[in-house]
Design goal:
232 residues; alpha+beta; Arc Repressor Mutant, subunit A; four-stranded mixed sheet; single chain; 10% strand; two-stranded antiparallel ribbon; 2 domains
């Protein structure tokens, strides 16, 4: 039932997206048609000049003829200018259509990414490999490399070893393993501070929060499959 609902939801979403894009194209197309219809005719000025020639055939003086020639040239220039304006308007409309379609596409991608991030947040980060290299002070998480401090490497190593043993460590136990003291002599806040510094060192809030899980009233653990952990 849930699979069917999810499929129907995707189909409805796809139809809405396609409908939105078609609506944008249709609106811009109608706007372009109305705009071009209401633009003046490029030959209107030439037609008026031609009519002026016909109605004033008695104008035979050099000055009058020169004036009519100037008017004819002006009409041609007006026609060329208006034609260029039509082309510019057409290009701008095409550009606006492309921008709106791109905006819709990016919005859809952003929504899909947000939903995917929400799913990852609910289920935990998918880690295919986690390699800890103490010598290089580096951690390789999938295809990402993180340079860590000595303290962060030690904290992550303790968590990795505990994860391979299916253990959940409290802050005091983490501090005990790293410092070599008895857990009863260690403060819970000290281990919590180490976890915070580890997360700060990892930098990416999503990765750090999902990689190092805080289990209420139990402690801390790595939220990954223990079989993907490698330690050098």
């Amino acid at each position: 039932m849930s699979i069917s609902s999810a499929t129907e939801g995707r189909e409805i979403g796809s139809r809405i997206i396609i409908g939105g894009i078609l609506a944008i194209v249709l609106i811009l197309f109608v706007a372009a048609v109305l705009l071009f219809i209401n633009l003046p005719d490029a030959n209107a000025f030439n037609a008026r000049v031609e009519q002026l020639f016909i109605e004033n055939d008695t104008l035979t003086g050099n000055a009058e003829i020169k004036l009519l020639e100037i008017l004819a040239g002006s009409g041609t220039a007006f026609s060329d200018t208006l034609s260029s304006y039509r082309f510019v308007i057409f290009v701008l409309l095409v550009f606006a259509t492309a921008l709106l379609i791109a905006a819709v596409a990016f919005l859809v991608m952003l929504i899909a990414l947000t939903r995917r991030m929400a799913r990852i947040e609910r289920s935990g980060i998918e880690v295919n490999s986690l390699q800890i290299n103490r010598d290089q002070k580096a951690v390789y998480l999938n295809d990402f490399e993180f340079k860590l401090t000595d303290a962060a490497i030690e904290t992550l190593s303790v968590l990795a070893e505990a994860r391979m043993d299916d253990e959940v460590l409290s802050g005091a136990e983490i501090e005990s393993v790293i410092s070599g003291r008895d857990p009863s002599d260690c403060d819970e806040a000290a281990g919590a501070t180490r976890i915070k510094r580890l997360r700060d060192t990892l930098g990416n809030q999503m990765i750090s929060e999902l990689l190092v899980k805080n289990i209420a009233r139990k402690g801390y653990m790595l939220a990954i499959d223990k079989n993907v952990i490698r330690m050098d």
